[in-house]
Amino acid sequence: MSPDLTMDCAAVRELAPEYVLGTLDEATAARLRAHLATCTEEHAELREIGGVIPYLAESLEPVEPRAQLKERLLAAARTARPLRVVPGRAPAPGSAAAGRATVRWSPPRRFAWALAAAALIVATALGATTLSLRN
Amino acid sequence: MNRSPGPATSAGGPAGDEQETALLKSISAGELGALETLYDRYRGIAYALALRITADTQLAEDVVQDAFLGVWRHSAHYTQSRASVRTWLLSIVHHRAIDVVRRRRPTSALPEGDDPVEAVLVAVDPWPEVMGRLDRESIHAALATLSDVQREAIELAYFGGLTHQEIAQRTGAPLGTVKSRVRLGLLALREVLVAARAVPDRAGGAA
Prior knowledge:
The structure holds two protein chains of two kinds.
Chain A: H1 9-21, H2 26-38, H3 44-50, H4 53-58, H5 68-79, E1 84-85, E2 103-104, H6 109-134
Antiparallel strand pairs in A: 1-2
Helix pairs in contact in A: 1-3, 5-6
Chain B: H1 14-28, H2 32-54, H3 57-74, H4 85-104, H5 116-123, H6 136-144, H7 148-158, H8 164-171, H9 175-198
Helix pairs in contact in B: 1-2, 2-3, 2-4, 3-4, 6-9, 7-9, 8-9
């Protein structure tokens, strides 16, 4: 971690391509976000080149994942409920802390993951049964 | 230039965005069916992206599951995003997949988070698509206008998760050259995509 916690506008412009491509190390990216949260400049260069990034993913031909993935996902989701926003505590949009302090857990995390794991085992067993029945 | 939504007739237009926002609202209300709908809509492109980056079916499945679970549990984050739900989701998939491949590399030291998906959601910063939805052909055509070295540098960064320094080492090009290839390549891509958007009938959203 660099001791220098500040970043000037020129540095943001210099780092913009790596930032939007997602290859900056997390410490540097966090400093860049901290700069954006307080900077009065628009930093249009980020929006300019950042706006083409989604098309890189969209250039790919979709690939169908295995059907079991959906079962796994839904089994895990059943035991980990969505987090709720705590009213009145939302930080300014785009601030470095955005989101972090505004959500809280529904079930205790460890318990939720234990449940998710249990559900996954059941789902896998069910999936295996279904497969063997089908074959 | 600031307006990202395309015409109302395209899948990525305001009407589509409203539907997606409603879907996300249902997700944050804990409706499992809404998560299933979102998954069915985007599993193909999400898995394609994860697979391209990780080159491993098991890792790719884990990444996709983590990303959708992240959306399920943290959909409240979406209100702070300026991008479409699709782009937001793909940003999470991308970030998570890059994280996974970088952790596999012996040279990169990344901190172990107690909740990697949450860390990704805080870090992810999706930018609105400059031109709304474009079909794959238009995107391929746009990418084909870049020079080979520009395209290679951008792809090594985006799909390979390589830093500019690592791209320089990999390709044998000086760091400064890599930097300008990526920057000029992205700017050129933007120009071409804007032009593609201006041509009617090429810009319909692929359902």
